[in-house]
Write a structure and sequence with these properties.
The chain is of the alpha/beta class. The radius of gyration is 17 Å and the shape is globular. It is 52% helix and 14% strand. Strands 4-3-8-7-5-6 form a six-stranded parallel β-sheet, with helices on both faces. A two-stranded antiparallel ribbon has the order 1-2. The chain has one domain. It is built from 13 helices and eight strands. Helix 6 links the parallel strand 5 and strand 6.
């Protein structure tokens, strides 16, 4: 049973458990997709029903943002911990490299996915990156065909929310991959275009602060995030706990 956090059900997994679940989906056959909601996702899903349904329909729903885990505690239904999408991806990549699985990278600006592919193949010897495509496309068909022809097992879909989640729902089954994972700006990190926060800030759940210092224009987005905690407190006071 998933843990309901403000209308979105999360899988209560550790990072290791999430990686094992992802690997099992790849081996399972058929099409599956994973999402990594942060507080912004929760707020957006309240006003975007197709997006909310895409989150609810995922085979894996992982708590990416520290605000999600804080909200879970406030609601009285704590999760085992945060599962950052990029760290989930890294664990999955290690497994893929060891088992000969094929990866397709979709998203970011032209040239970024290719750079990310080169870096990932160097970091995970044996990893097969069977194709790439930037996120600046107008029609889905050619991208779906490229994934089909690549015979990818896994696709990292890095188009930003909600576009990436809706794209996976709409095109995933036809693309032929076993697992698609929505990973936002992860390709920029894998390519070395964007740096993650220092490890100490990561452990404290303060990556958002590091990103804000690097990109002050994000202040408008960050200012909305405390709304998730206020909403969780309100839900707790009005009996929201009963929905767990």
């Amino acid at each position: 049973m998933r843990t309901d956090i403000l209308g979105v059900g999360f899988d209560d997994l550790t990072l290791d458990e999430a990686a094992e679940a992802g690997a099992a989906l790849v081996e399972d056959g058929g099409f599956h997709y994973a999402v990594t909601p942060n507080p912004e996702f929760l707020l957006a899903a309240q006003h975007d029903e197709p997006f909310r349904q895409a989150l609810l329909g995922a085979d894996l729903v992982l708590a990416d943002g520290v605000g999600v885990t804080y909200a879970a505690k406030i609601l009285g239904r704590p999760l085992k911990g945060r599962v950052p999408g990029i760290e989930f991806a890294q664990r999955l990549l290690a497994w893929m490299a060891a088992h000969g699985k094929r990866l397709f990278l979709l998203g970011a600006k032209p040239g970024v996915a290719e750079l990310a592919a080169a870096n990932l193949k160097a970091a995970y010897p044996g990893l097969i990156v069977c194709g790439t495509h930037d996120g600046y496309f107008q029609e889905d068909g050619p991208v779906v065909k490229a994934i089909q022809e690549s015979a990818a097992d896994v696709v990292f879909v890095c188009l930003g929310a909600p576009k990436q989640e809706l794209w996976m729902v709409r095109n995933g089954p036809a693309a032929g991959a076993r697992l698609m994972v929505g990973l936002g700006g992860s390709l920029d990190v894998f390519a070395g275009v964007v740096e993650r926060a220092p490890e100490g800030l990561q452990k404290l759940g303060l990556e958002w602060l590091y990103r804000l210092m690097k990109e002050p224009r994000r202040i408008g987005r960050m200012a909305r995030l405390p709304l998730v905690l206020f909403q969780a407190a309100g839900a707790r006071l009005t009996g929201g706990r009963a929905r767990a």
